[in-house]
Design goal:
409 residues; Nucleotidyltransferase, domain 5; Rossmann fold; 6-stranded mixed β-sheet; 11 helices; disordered N terminus
Length: 409
C-alpha cells in the first residue's frame, strides 16, 4: 500500500470485553470516532468486533470489508480472561512423567490461610492425567524411553473420550526436550488439535510452574485461536491489497502488541486489562499525574492496577486460582463485575462468580437475563438509562429496562 492509499485507510482499535465491545478509529480524513455495542448479540451479529468495524465503515452485516479500506486492527480482548474465570476453556489432558501425576495438584503446599479449617483447593484445569513411562536425568541421560505404541494407545483413549487439547510436561523437559517433542508428534498424529509442550511454552526449570503454564496454554489457546481465526478470516474475505490484508494485532498480557498468528493462550490472560493499564498511564500523563491507581470494572471481571512512573510487571503470578509463569502486567483480577449474577442460595444472598455476560446479559438488557450487580445499580439510580446507548431488547433498539428491574426485585 503506497502513501496515498495509506492515507485513505482506517485504523481501528478495539477493546472486546465480556459484556461490551468498544471501538475507537481514525477515519481516512484523520478524525477520531468511537462506537459501542454488546459483545454477544447472536440474533443480530456473530461477532461484535467485526460488526463494529462494519458499522464504522457503513457496511451491512453481510458486506465484505473492501480491500484496502482498513490498514490495521489492534485489539485487546478478555476472551481468554473470562474463559479462565468461568472455567470455560477446552477439555484438556495433562501428559506427564510417570510418578508425577499429582505434582501440579500438590503444587508448592503454600498455606495462604493458615488457620482455615476447611481448605478449598483450586480447581485443576485438566480433567485427565496420562503418565508416560519416560525419564531423563538432570544431565540428559535416558533412564526410561517412551514406547511409541504404548503412548499412542494412552493418548488414543483420551482422544476417544472427546478431549482435543493436550499439555505435555516432562521432568527436565525444559533442557532436554527430545521426549516431549516425541510425544507431541504422536499427539498430533492421534488427532489432538491443540498440543502445548512445556519446552516451547515455558522453557524454564521448576516442574510445577512450567507445568501450570503449559496447562493454561493448552486450556485457553483453542478458544482463543477460534476467535482470532474468525476475525482474521473475515478481515481477509474482501481480498488482499498489494500489501496483503489488514494487519491484525492483539494486546498481550505484558502490554505489548503481537501479530494475530503469534497470539498464545498463556500471553492472553490479561490482554484486555493490560491495554487498560497502558491507557490509564497515558491519560494520567496528559493530566500531569505520575502516580495512579487503576480500577477497571467490566461486565465479568474487575481489574486493579498501580502506576508509579513505570509499568509494573510480574513473571510469576496467580490469576483466578491458577498459577502461571509468563511476563504480564501486575494486575489483580477478581471474578466480579457488572454482570455478576445475584442469587439467594437458601441461606444468604450471593454475588458471582458466574456472569450474565452480554447474552442474555443483566435483567435490564430486556433479554430475560438474571438479576446482576448492574441491575442493583439501575434500581438505585447509579446507572441511568438515558446515558446508555439504546442497543438492548430483541430489536437492539431499546434503552435499559428500569421498570422491569424494579418489578424483579
Amino acid at each position: 500500500m503506497n502513501a496515498a492509499e495509506n492515507a485513505k485507510a482506517w485504523q481501528i482499535w478495539i477493546d472486546r470485553g465480556g459484556t461490551f465491545t468498544d471501538l475507537v478509529a481514525r477515519r481516512p480524513d484523520g478524525k477520531l470516532v468511537s462506537h459501542k455495542l454488546l459483545s454477544e448479540n447472536p440474533d443480530h451479529y456473530e461477532d461484535a468486533a467485526l460488526k463494529g468495524i462494519r458499522d464504522l465503515l457503513g457496511l451491512s452485516p453481510t458486506d465484505p470489508i473492501p480491500p484496502g479500506a482498513v490498514e490495521v486492527v489492534r485489539m485487546g480482548t478478555t476472551v481468554a480472561t473470562n474463559a479462565l474465570l468461568e472455567r470455560a476453556g477446552d477439555r484438556t489432558v495433562l501428559i506427564i512423567t510417570k510418578g508425577f501425576a499429582d505434582a501440579l495438584r500438590i503444587g508448592y503446599q503454600n498455606r495462604p490461610k493458615l488457620f482455615d479449617r476447611q481448605i478449598q483447593l483450586p480447581e485443576m484445569l485438566y480433567e485427565r492425567v496420562i503418565e508416560i513411562d519416560e525419564r531423563l536425568d538432570a544431565h540428559g541421560d535416558i533412564l526410561a524411553a517412551p514406547d511409541p505404541d504404548t503412548v499412542t494407545g494412552q493418548l488414543g483413549a483420551a482422544f476417544e473420550a472427546g478431549i482435543r487439547s493436550a499439555a505435555i510436561v516432562f521432568m527436565h523437559g525444559y533442557r532436554y526436550p527430545a521426549h516431549e517433542n516425541l510425544v507431541a508428534g504422536i499427539a498430533g498424529q492421534v488427532g489432538f488439535t491443540q498440543v502445548s509442550v512445556s519446552n516451547r511454552v515455558s522453557p524454564m526449570m521448576k516442574l510445577v510452574s512450567r507445568g501450570d503454564t503449559t496447562v493454561v496454554d493448552a486450556y485457553l489457546s483453542p478458544i482463543l485461536r477460534r476467535y482470532v481465526d474468525r476475525v482474521a478470516t473475515d478481515l481477509e474475505a474482501g481480498g488482499d491489497t498489494m500489501e496483503g490484508p489488514p494487519r491484525l494485532q492483539f494486546m498481550q498480557s505484558n502490554g505489548g502488541l503481537t501479530d494475530a498468528k503469534l497470539f498464545q493462550g498463556k500471553d492472553s490472560i490479561l490482554s484486555g486489562p493490560a491495554g487498560g493499564v497502558v491507557g490509564m498511564a497515558r491519560t494520567a500523563a496528559m493530566g500531569g499525574f505520575e502516580k495512579v491507581i487503576g480500577f477497571d470494572m467490566g461486565g465479568t471481571s474487575t481489574d486493579v492496577s498501580h502506576y508509579d512512573g513505570t509499568f509494573e510487571r510480574a513473571f510469576e503470578t496467580t490469576i483466578a486460582g491458577v498459577r502461571m509463569r509468563a511476563p504480564m502486567m501486575r494486575i489483580h483480577t477478581v471474578a466480579a463485575g457488572g454482570g455478576s449474577i445475584c442469587r439467594f442460595d437458601g441461606q444468604r444472598f450471593r454475588v458471582g462468580p458466574g456472569s450474565a455476560g452480554a447474552d442474555p446479559g443483566p435483567a435490564c438488557y430486556r433479554r430475560g437475563g438474571p438479576l446482576t450487580v448492574t441491575d442493583c445499580n439501575v434500581l438505585l439510580g447509579k446507572v441511568q438509562p438515558q446515558h446508555f446507548p439504546q442497543v438492548f431488547g430483541p430489536g437492539a433498539d431499546q434503552p435499559l429496562d428500569h421498570l422491569g428491574v424494579s418489578t424483579r426485585f
